[in-house]
Write a structure and sequence with these properties.
The protein is an alpha/beta fold. It has 6 helices and 7 strands; from the N terminus they run E-H-E-H-E-E-H-E-E-H-E-H-H.
Amino acid sequence: MIILASASPRRKELLTQIGCKFQVITSNAEEVTGGGLSPQELVVKNAYNKAAAVAREHPDYPVLGSDTVVSLDGHIYGKPRDEEHAKEMLKLFSGKTHQVTTGIVFVWKGQSWQAWETTEVVFSTLSQDKIDKYVATGEPADKAGAYGIQGQAATFIKGIRGSYSNVVGLPLHCLDGLAQKAGIDLYDNGEGSSSR
């Protein structure tokens, strides 16, 4: 069994989808938002901080931290501050290709393992009316880049290059590889890992 250091319902759904044995313990680590870091450096740093904070309290289990950001033209976009901010982001992404980067980190037995994944997302051109109506649904509120690919915003997306689950919030293929590297069995009912 692993501990997911995230309250994200999307990450919970993805782990459930693959049959992972896990429990959720939300991290109280403060998220880093800038500091001149690249998207890859930023998400790995935040994922590590989240996992490490929970691992200190629960040292017997592997702890998974994760963080996702959207980037366009060198600028990083996290969750929107409010509805106006969400509208600004969507207007910027309209008709363009942006990148979604997720960092994942396991902390266990005093060690850490990290990885990140980037997916390119191609947006169609969005009218202001379409943006306004979408933001009014409330769906963008807690999502990096102010949209959910698995929700109503699916109609905005012409295509993706890379991992779909990464855009949802957890790159599952990357996660499986990282777990194997760390000797962690995602499907274990017991305490700890199986031998690989």
